[in-house]
Design brief:
Blueprint: E1 17-18, E2 31-34, E3 40-43, H1 45-52, H2 69-77, H3 80-93, E4 97-99, E5 120-124, E6 128-131, E7 135-139, E8 142-144, E9 148-155, E10 161-166, E11 184-188, E12 193-196, E13 198-201, E14 211-217, E15 222-227, E16 230-237, E17 249-255, E18 259-263, E19 277-278, H4 286-304, H5 311-315, H6 326-343, H7 350-356, H8 358-367, H9 375-386, H10 391-408, H11 422-431, H12 435-443, H13 447-454, H14 462-468, H15 482-514, H16 527-544, H17 556-571, E20 582-583, E21 601-604, H18 614-617, H19 626-632, E22 643-646, H20 670-675, H21 680-683, H22 697-709, H23 713-716, E23 753-754, H24 755-800, H25 804-835, H26 838-859, H27 862-865, H28 870-884, H29 893-896, H30 902-911, H31 920-933, H32 937-944, H33 947-960, H34 966-976, H35 994-1005, H36 1008-1039, H37 1044-1070, H38 1073-1076, H39 1081-1097, H40 1103-1110, H41 1123-1142, H42 1151-1157, H43 1163-1169, H44 1180-1209, H45 1212-1215, E24 1231-1234, E25 1239-1240, H46 1242-1249, E26 1264-1267
Helix pairs in contact: 2-6, 4-6, 4-8, 7-10, 10-11, 10-13, 11-15, 15-17, 15-25, 16-24, 17-24, 17-26, 24-25, 24-28, 26-28, 26-30, 28-31, 30-31, 30-33, 31-34, 33-35, 34-37, 36-37, 36-39, 37-41, 41-44, 42-44, 43-44
Length: 1283
Amino acid sequence: MAEDSVRHIGISSGLAVLLSDDKPKGNPQKSRLISYCDSIGDHSVERTLEHIFDLPHKSVRPSGSLIDVDFIRSILKKQLPRFQQENDSDCYKRDGLSILDCGSAPNAVVIDNASTRGDIKTIRKPLLVESQTVFSSARANACAWKGKWMYEVTLETSGIQQLGWATVSCPFTDRKGVGDSEDSYAFDGKRVSKWNKDPMPYGQSWVVGDVIGCCIDLDSDVVSFLRNGVSLGVAFDRIQKMRPGIGYYPAISLSDGERCDLNFGARPFKYPVDGFLPIQAPPISRYYANYLLSCLTRLLEVRCLDKPDSAYFEKLRRLRRFAPLKELFYPISHGILEEFFNVIQPGEGSFEYIAWGALPSCFLGIFGIHEPHDYASLDQVLDIFLEFPGSDPLLQHLIVALSCSCKVAPLVLTDCPYSGSYPYLALVCHILRRKTMMVLWWKSPDFEFSLEGFLSMKRPNKQDLHCLIPSVWWPGSCEDVGCESSMMLTMTALSGAMNKIEEMHRRLCSLVIHFVPRATPCQPPGSVFKIFLQNFILKVRGAEHKMTSSNVSNNSVAVSLYTVILHFLSEGFPVEGISGFVKGSGVNLGANVGFLHRGGKRRFPVELFFTGDANCAGARRIGGSLNHLVNSQLFNEEQIKEVQWVEGCMDDEETTVTHSTIQKPCCCSSSDVDDIQIAEDSIGYTSRGLKGFCVPISKRSHTVVTLCNSRSLGDEIVDKPSSSNQSEVDTGCRSLQCPESITTTSELSLEVLREEELLDMMLFLYHLGVAPNFRQAFYYMSHQSQSISLLDDTDKQIRERSCIEQVKRLKEARNVYREELVDCVRQCAWYRISLFSRWKQRGMYATCMWVVELLLVLSNTDSVFCYVPEFYLESLVDSFHALRKSDPSFVSSAIFIKQGLASFVTFVVKHFNDPRILSADIKDLLLHSISSLVQCKDYLVAFEDNKEAIQRLPRALLLAFDNRSWIPVANIILRLCKGSGFSYSNHAGSSSSALFQVLLREACVHNEALFSSFLNRLFNTLSWTMTEFSVSIREMQENYQIGDLQQRKCSVVFDLSCNLAKILEFCTREIPQAFLLGPDMNLRRLTELIIFILNHIIFTSDSEFFDMSVRRPCQYQEKTNRTIILAPLVGIITSLMDASTNLEQMELNDVVGVFVNMDCPATVFQCLLGYNWSNVLRGDASLTKLAKLDEFSSNLRSRTEAIKRTESCVRTGDEEGEDFCCICYACNSDAMFEPCHHKSCHGCITRHLLNGQRCFFCNAVVTSVVKLEPRNPSWETRGWFDY
């Protein structure tokens, strides 16, 4: 033959590749080959087979027989002995390990139930386990005494778990487990410690999805651990040596609710370590099966080299097959797979082992890990596999393996945007486009488990973020100038990867929604997805009762589901034809406009609150538990099945902004959509063969804007039939029946999945998974701001200090602050990538608009409103503030509420004190919302323009000032009254609310009982805070140190006291008659508080110690000195003096006289006059007030001296006849309790009765108070409001 005459130099197995020639010569059945030595010659098909089967050169001899399946199998069987030799070699290396028989499969390593203490339950085979008690421990049934061994643990939760090795003598109790004794060794990534009787710092913190490798080297007596293939170093050395039969067992200890997946070798390791063997021996057929799959891969390489759109052509684009293999592809491929399915046996675990190892690698190699993917080659391989009867369980295992790979796949910066779980998601999405594969997956018992895995997303820890974001920058940073641009490029790359993964999540969920099983009874489109959501919610609800906290459980599935549904409802459904399967009250989705952005008439089926859906059945309602509401028969669901309203009906007509008005909401304004353009090639699906599968977000955003601007959305849904008239789909938690085939859309007549149901589930998913992430994000944002301030303050001190030792300590502290800041910057960057996409902000804004209108409509019907789940309100308020504080911001604060969310102000004002809401936590949530919003001038304007706020807010605030809500109420009142006190600044007046100051004054003046009750609670609260503050200061002075916790407590209580004092100053300035007219009880209580505060503030022995105690981290000294609380006291006194001058024609209480009776020394006010008020006073008006204070001090001093002179003339015997009050010792006992006849002064009795109705001497119930010697009869008949 021609090739025999060609000289071959250095050709070895697999080195020959096929080379194309534009003008082929000789026999067309010949191939032209090239070696590494560039020797070119004509080769036959036999040489091609050698390349495919990785055989030595000329090992395949020419044969006159046909190349058929039998011929191919005969070639392959000749290679079997060499793989059997490798198996024999592995068996020889396994000396030093024994496996106990626990009744499972032969040589299978499992949990030894006899060793278990507590309750460790296998929730999925083979070894996905969960602790069912407070602390559970167990050993495996394998014992090692020599050699190198390892096993892997995949974390399903990231709480307290102790993973490692233990001997049989290690005691397990309900408190002690692996690592708690001398003969056991463990690693705990939650506490970042290694355990051998006592903990020691070791390793890194772990997260959900981490793969922990547990290695023991009994040849070197060393135990070590790995996290995701990265060694954490030697944990323990010189461990105790063992003898045959007595050694170390793999062992675990788990806290309640903790879950992990153990792999002792039944599946290939994710991160194998050279030299270490798995505890369980792999199947003996693995080498041969892996070889066969590699042969199939090489066959496809040869088959696809002439296709310019294949991945192999990209790798070898200058090399093309010359000899045609079209006729030979069938016998070669079928011969390979016949041998493959013949060699793997289900009984020995080969199916699972191959499906978790070589098969995913083979399919990914064919498909490609990045675009463009080779769909044609993958389809060809799937066609061949599906021809074999044994392929079904193998492909089911493959889907589960791809799912679990998504759980553990980390983002890698260099692989972006095709990083993380993207390759596995892209592969499975294409596989599941086949109806047969979708049915096969759905029939699998692991359907829901694997779908959760596909929707998982691994979150990086501190070390992972350092690799993902190597360069950091923050505003004002003095880092390298290149850090900013480097970080921007990194953020862009990671955002691209996140967008790719989220796109795959949407595509997968769309396929599940699109899937219509043939079952009895008939299931509508979307039912599979709906049942999955309900079962997932039920499972998460059950996990809420465990001790596992939300920050250690895998809530990424809930986040992914929320993101998918939000995109569907906001941006439209991405799959062609899928929009017809999801309905929103009969709305046509042909325009691909998101449900949340449609204007006009809206509907909501309130029957969702009564049908017992998974997400609502166990949820607490606004009016209490569901059982309580049902028993009270407040509402009959047959009366109202849905509510209807027109968008914007709850807003003022002149300020209404809807999707149908000329001015659009923030989520649909044209300028905003232009600003949030997302690159089409980074979001849209551009791969060949799937055009139209996903419409880019930017296009859908423009579609929404166009339709909004044309005012066609509202017209489109008018007079359309409601979907709620159709039969309700059963929403119980159940499994669908196995179908025999797929039902087409035309065969369906039942109700489809409603968009309102998706909205209902989305709100609950936000409550479960997204809200904790936002709280964590804002924690890091706040901590970042504090760290920047600390770093700047430290730099300033370093520049000002001259002492070398002080500078050294400051630099050490600076390094700590900088490290914390860098970590915060990376954390904030991660949350910015994962949470604050612009399309998500659009969707959240539209969701807030939709839900707040729904709640306002429902609130008009008491019986229905009580059934609303609490998570509706929680999700609304939390998402509103998450959007408001998002970074980067969605829109400016000036239009955030004005253009779409004015009704939110109406809702929080209307319901923060609503008696129908039983939960105090919900009321606090609404109240804190008001407190947060009024701090910003732009949001305060929204309150001033809101009719509900003007009518309800002042009186409701006074009512809400109670033992629980006084802090947010005080913050709100203080903000409304800001800039009107003694220590106002030039800029404070512009940020206050003159309107609400007038409204508050009118509310107090027109309702004497309400204001008296408020004033009493204000006095009591301020007295309590100042007492707490004085006690804390005294404790720190006695201990001669300032602890962090004590300092934080002091600073918080001090701030609260200052706020309450400023509110009291507002009351004395705006309503002085409450203290100057009528009974002097209010004036006396006010005087007592002033003297108490002055005594503890002015006469503090160590003023520097005082200032250090009240200063918070990142606060400058001028913002925390004692003038902050002294200023409102001066304002109170001067306000009363001004009012006394203005009310000269009336009979007034003597302000100076009350101070004199309280034995207040005049030197106190002289000290006040001597203070440096330059930091807090602005303008001439404050100087006038200081003059008033000087006048008051002079009057007090002269009155005090006059009383002393008078007392010196009074005989001692006259004092014996006085009947002084035994409570205050300042007034005569002029009142008596009935019926017990105990006496006291009228002021003390009246003050006591404000808080209780029992005698403070004998605890008898007081029926009346009799005045013995009324000081002024007119006070008995007239109140101070009558003046």
